[in-house]
Structures are given as C-alpha cells and as structure tokens.
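We treat protein structure as text, and this decision shapes the records that our systems exchange. Below, we set out a record of this kind in full and without editing:

***
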Amino acid sequence: MENLVQAMKDAIQANGLVQVETSARHVHLSQTDLEQLFGVGYKLTGKRALSQPGQYLAEEKITLVGPKGEKKISILGPTRVKTQIELSRSDCMMLGMTAPIRLSGQLNESGAFVLKGPNGVVALSEGAIIAKAHIHVPPEMADRLKLVDKQRVRLEIITERPVILQDVIVRVDEASSYKAHIDTDEANAAACEGFTLGRIIDSRVK
C-alpha cells in the first residue's frame, strides 16, 4: 500500500501537478493570547494532524467578533509568536471586517479583530489577513521543478470548472509538504470538491 501511495505521489509530481487544499477560516494563537482566552497555563488539545509537518487542528474553537456578527472559528496549533487570523473575502463581508491579502506572517498594518473565549477577550489592532494563494514546496521538489522561494507562478485548478489563479507564491521550506493552499472563495469559484489537483502552468521569477 505504501508503495502504491508513493507511486501516485511520484506520478503527480512528474507531471507538474500538486494537490490543492482548501484552507477555511482559522486562527493561529500566541501563547499569551491563548491563556487570555482560555486560562493561565492552557495548552491546546490536538484533534488531527494537518498536511504541513507539526501543524494540527485543535479541539478548541474560538469566537471571532465583527461589527456585523460573530462566528466560531477553528484554532490551528502549535502556538505562534503572534496571533494571526486567516479569512476569506466573503468572511470579511459577512462579519463587517477588513483584511488585506497577505502571506502568512506578514501582519504589519493588517486587519483589527476581537476574539472571545471561555475565559476572556482579546482585541488586537492587527493580525487579520486574507491568505494569498501559495504552494508549499520542499527543497528537493523545488530543484526538480526548477522553482525558487518567493517565485510567482500561475496555477490551474483542475476541476469540472477549471480556474487559473494568477500570482500564486512559491514557499520553499525544509519543513514543508508539497501542497497548494487556496481559500474558500477561490475553491468555490473552481468548484473544488474532495481530492483536487492543480497544475503549475507558467512561472516568473520575482
């Protein structure tokens, strides 16, 4: 079975394809904010592992409060240095929030937000973003595909309703799994459902 799975991965990679995952709204919390929301010394409870090594979906959820309403959102672990919320444009419109399109970690002058937990409230002046479509690529795969970190590519989502995404960012990292990440608006536009593949059809080095 393991040989079959590896053969499928090799076939996908050999044809310039990549698995496309849809990233729904979620939050990465700092330990300080986690304790403010859930209590001193609180630790997240892992529910299931995610495709990127070391990351997981937590059992806990938190309430995001916007001018137009509230929404329960998932928490991804482990904790980070700074709290970051990743939303779609539709999420922002529904909650009355504003957030720029950014890569993860680019939080300077990003959107303000309020989180409500069982033990307290956290209000931050920045940290809300709409995640820019990107492809996680380990170094050996980057070499094989002739990709470099921060390269901008076009990505065709292969579905019954194919969409070509422009300006998708390549993120080369030792601790990454070869996957493309898009948000729910992009996935809905392409009618993504279940296992989805994409094709890198063009590239431009930044």
In short: Helices lie at 2-14, 31-38, 89-95, 139-145, 184-189. The mean pLDDT is 93.
